[in-house]
Design a protein that fits this description.
Blueprint (H helix, E strand, L loop, with lengths): L13 E8 L3 E7 L5 E10 L6 E8 L2 H8 L5 H6 L5 E7 L6 E5 L1 H6 L15 E2 L8 E7 L8 H19 L9 E6 L5 E6 L2 H16 L4 H8 L3 H13 L2 E7 L9 E4 L4 H8 L17 H12 L17
Antiparallel strand pairs: 1-2, 1-7, 2-3, 3-4, 4-5, 5-6, 8-10, 8-11, 9-10, 11-12
Length: 322
């Protein structure tokens, strides 16, 4: 079974993501060299014809609409019944031969073997095939006043500060260093695709950030429990307020994060005032060699000041001379 046609006006296609695979891909997205994206659905094998063929439905689709499919905000059937542009029927012969592509009208689409109403993308079954599809979150940075533009330095600071906060909230007792990093940016806008080396941990971290911003009554206690430096959080919120921004962080799928979160400049004054007056002081583990235990560091420094010889075997919790 050959799902990708060759030598057609659709261009040279490659797999973008695979959504349903049973004895070969049956539903997937494909992209050509011009970055045109298609949603593809297997319409059946027809072996009784003079030339046995596999029939496929190809619908051009935008990245935004594909995002809705991944988040189960729309069904696959809707893409073919209400296409953004058109729907093509692609016949690929079983043996050697040229593929044929025909554009379908609305009546022909409804008479085709299109997906059932209940067919939605399952996040845990998505197989990423193209590097451009390998992302976890999308950050949208918008200006509340549309007539003014956002400085590039502001964009950089938002991304760096937000990534640093999420990475701090992702840390646990493991030795692995959590990371969140920008991958691609949409041309002409401030929509940035973000990747992470721990998808589930980063989703939990984003939920914790949302929890911090929604409840100021126990903010100090939560900052302490989460191990987040209040000054890191204040740095991010200051940028949002000073430049009158609105940040929206959306997951690629709702597999781990159940909803998007928004940070708006007009709702942060209470949180910023609280952070300004906060007496909570935390030292990030990245600033403390080998451990986030500040008491252990003080113990080592005191022994050094007293002229004692310090060996890691004599300090509880240390396992190397470093």
């Amino acid at each position: 079974m050959k799902p990708l046609p060759i030598n057609t006006f659709l261009g040279k296609l490659r797999f973008f993501e695979i959504y349903d695979d049973f004895d070969g891909p049956k539903c997937f997205s494909a992209i050509n060299r011009l970055e045109q994206l298609f949603l593809v659905y297997w319409s059946g094998d027809y072996v009784d014809e003079e030339t046995p063929v596999t029939k496929w439905l190809y619908a051009p689709i935008s990245h935004k609409r594909l995002d809705k499919l991944r988040r189960q905000e729309s069904s696959i059937r809707d893409v073919f019944l209400k296409p953004e542009q058109c729907v093509y029927n692609v016949d690929i012969p079983f043996s050697e031969g040229n593929s044929t592509v025909n554009m379908l009208n609305q009546e022909q689409i409804t008479q085709s073997n299109i997906p059932p109403d209940i067919f939605y993308l399952e996040p845990d079954e998505i197989e990423v095939c193209d590097k451009a599809a390998d992302w976890n979150f999308e950050l949208k940075i918008a200006k509340k006043v549309k007539s003014t533009s956002i400085a590039s330095t502001t964009i950089t600071k938002v991304i760096d500060t937000l990534s640093e906060i999420i990475e701090s909230l992702m840390k646990d007792d493991s030795r692995e260093q959590p990371r969140m990093y920008p991958l691609t940016a949409t041309r002409g806008s401030f929509e940035v695709k973000l990747g992470t080396n721990y998808h589930e941990k980063s989703s939990v971290a984003i939920e914790r950030l949302n929890e911090l911003l929604s409840d100021t009554e126990s903010l100090d206690e939560k900052l302490q429990d989460m191990g987040l430096d209040p000054y890191k959080l204040k740095d991010l919120l200051d940028v949002v307020v000073e430049d009158n921004l609105e940040l929206t962080l959306q997951p690629k799928t709702y597999e781990y994060l159940s909803e998007s979160i928004s940070i708006k400049s007009d709702s942060l004054s209470k949180v910023i005032n609280h952070l300004s007056n906060s007496t909570t002081t935390l030292i990030d583990s990245s600033l403390v060699p080998q451990s986030s235990d500040i008491d252990r560091i003080i113990e080592i420094v005191c022994k050094k000041v007293e002229g004692q010889i310090v060996r890691h075997e004599d300090i509880e919790g240390l396992n190397s001379e470093r």
